[in-house]
Design brief:
Distance between the termini: 70 Å
Strand content: 25-35%
Number of helices: 6
Structural class: alpha/beta
Radius of gyration: 25 Å
Length: 333
């Protein structure tokens, strides 16, 4: 005869209730990096909040036509791609707050972000704030901004139908937008400080073959002039040092980008240009704070690399949240 012993339940430690105002993850920035991070984090059932001050899709939405993003052999507009990404994350119930993140504080067991005087808390944060167009810093640029000086061909191109305009730069962005502007302008002058383009060969070939596009090689802008609107640009030939006045109705500037890293300046490690330094898991110098996309120090800034950064950052953030707070800081060589 066997004796049955009634099993008694093992005592369980009482779990500390989660703060209702505490998110698992806050993502600052709603461009391709931020939205991809949100996609992966939401699918991991994390409690996620996105903070965006302008438009979901980021700077990608200002690109008229994207040909180098996988899966779209016929190409896709930046706005359409941004809208598709937005639809995808909204279906997962992503919470979004619209406003400008003005401060980030690293507390003992969480991060605190202030958005327009309202405080949000999270266990981890991904900074995906991207970049903004770099300025030439020449006389007349700021005074005539919005009155002939532009940094967005998709936004302002239609205002220059049958007019003469100038594009400054020789990379992909400059040449893509110069080609886009041919549908409006009568003549487009491309100013480049070197004697060959930095853009992809296929773009360069199209631009060189276009009868509307002319080139000022090894030249730089010295000044932008005009009364109420832009009327001329002063160029300097770097080889001869000669100056040339070129009559134009508008100037579109694409000479690179400046990182939107003010939120973490003085908190995490930045490189000499202000981009956020991370390791290959998108970890910054502060545990629990990650960076993804164009705001990160890296060699290639494209939509596809931003999306990859976002996925990696979200996965690293998930692991960090599951492991709990760490006392040691990340080390950099």
């Amino acid at each position: 005869m066997t004796t049955q012993v009634k099993a008694r339940p093992k005592p369980q430690l009482a779990k500390k209730a989660e703060r209702p105002d505490l998110f698992d993850l806050i993502i600052v920035g709603g461009g391709p990096a931020g939205m991809t991070a949100a996609l992966y984090a939401c699918r991991s059932r994390l409690k996620v909040l996105m903070i965006e001050k302008m438009i979901l899709g980021g700077q990608a939405t200002t690109t008229f036509f994207i040909e180098n993003y996988p899966g779209f052999p016929e190409g896709i507009s930046g706005m359409d791609l941004g809208n598709r990404m937005q639809d995808q994350v909204r279906r997962l119930g992503l919470d979004i707050v619209w406003g400008n993140a003005t401060s980030l504080e690293n507390k003992k067991d969480h991060r605190e972000i202030t958005v327009d005087n309202k405080i949000f808390n999270a266990k981890s944060v991904i900074i995906a704030t991207g970049t903004e167009a770099a300025r030439l810093g020449v006389p007349g640029e700021e005074d005539l901004r919005g009155r002939g000086v532009s940094y967005c061909a998709t936004c302002d191109g239609p205002f220059y139908k049958d007019k003469n305009i100038m594009v400054v730069g020789g990379g992909n962005s400059a040449i893509e937008e110069a080609l886009f502007l041919t549908r409006y302008a009568k003549k487009i002058s491309v100013v480049h400080r070197r004697d060959e383009l930095r853009a992809d060969k296929i773009l360069g070939e199209r631009a060189l073959a276009d009868p509307k596009i002319y080139f000022f090689w090894h030249s730089v802008v010295e000044a932008i002039k005009g009364d109420k609107t832009v009327s001329e640009v002063v160029l300097k030939d770097k080889n001869s040092n000669k100056k040339l006045k070129v009559p134009v109705d508008g100037v579109f500037i694409y000479i690179g980008s400046k990182p939107n890293s003010e939120l973490v300046k003085g908190a995490v490690k930045l490189d000499k240009n202000g981009f956020i330094v991370t390791d290959n898991e998108m970890k910054t110098s502060i545990p629990g704070i990650f960076a993804a996309g164009d705001v990160r120090a890296k060699s290639l800034r494209q939509i596809v690399t931003a999306a990859a950064d976002g996925a990696i950052a979200a996965e690293a953030a998930r692991k960090s949240i599951e492991q709990g707070p760490k006392k040691k800081r990340n080390k950099y060589k």
